[in-house]
Amino acid sequence: MAETTAPTITQKPYVITGIARETPDVNIFSFKAQDGTKLDFDPGMFVMITYSNPATGEKITRAFSIASIPGSDTMEFFIGMVHGRFTSRLDTAKVGDVYYFTGPHGQFRFMPRNGDRVSFIAGGTGLAPFMSMLRYIKEKGLDTDVKLLYSVRYPNEILRKGELEGFASSLKMKMTVTITRPDGSEGWEGEKGRITPEMIKRAIPDPDGRTTFICGPLGFVKAVKEHLKSLGYPDDKVKADVWG
Ligand SMILES: Cc1cc2nc3c(=O)[nH]c(=O)nc-3n(C[C@H](O)[C@H](O)[C@H](O)COP(=O)(O)OP(=O)(O)OC[C@H]3O[C@@H](n4cnc5c(N)ncnc54)[C@H](O)[C@@H]3O)c2cc1C
Fold this sequence. Notes:
Elements: E1 10-23, E2 26-33, E3 46-52, E4 59-65, E5 75-80, H1 85-91, E6 98-105, E7 117-123, H2 128-140, E8 145-152, H3 161-170, E9 173-179, E10 191-192, H4 197-203, E11 211-216, H5 218-230, E12 238-242
Parallel strand pairs: 7-8, 7-11, 8-9, 9-10, 11-12
Antiparallel strand pairs: 1-2, 1-6, 2-5, 3-4, 3-6
The structure holds flavin-adenine dinucleotide.
The site of flavin-adenine dinucleotide has 19 residues, from β4, β5 and α1.
């Protein structure tokens, strides 16, 4: 895989242009730079978003992975509405509100090219950086060979389901979704339960020569890394983005 130079970090006001309830616990927020410029970033990177209350001087900053494609003038984020300090502010956010972005940041970068072979392992909103990568692969018409293993609690928590199914049918991508809380998910015919080494073998039967990217909460990433180790994946071919 090609190494690219990190894009320049900038700090700017961004305006909310869209808020969509994607699943019961995740909203998709869209932003545009107030000055109309586009942020230069590679798929997989994140920005620090700051909420600033001019009345009280309160400032809260959190990291969010960019789900949109490089070159787009809209920045999209999959945000788990966990009602914490930052996300509670987003509960009442509306189109037109201004937040401040610093970025892009992160070493979890992948600029896909023809011939690359990769595996993406995502937990929940950890799908976001992979969405940026997949959208890039689709837009450029690349033949990147992708195995996606995606873990969510319930079938109705699969983010951008239709778009993912479109990638699975139009790209060189095999998608495996596992539902970790299958109770009440009658009719679900895919994988069930947390990711295990056996499940990884089924989802990625041809791991040789692939680079594997993992993204999600701390416990998820730790467990998947252990499984990959037990399966003999070389450390230098595994990259992780941890949100804990
Ligand atoms: C590099 C990076 C990229 C990230 N990208 C994303 C992203 O794309 N989408 C996204 O939703 N988050 C992402 N996060 C997490 C995000 O930065 C915040 O930590 C998260 O939004 C919670 O912030 P908060 O202030 O609302 O919660 P806090 O006030 O910090 O925490 C409140 C409570 O919520 C719990 N909590 C925090 N996060 C979660 C969670 N994800 N699920 C369940 N409970 C939680 C905490 O344990 C705590 O008990 C990323 C983090 C990093 C480091």
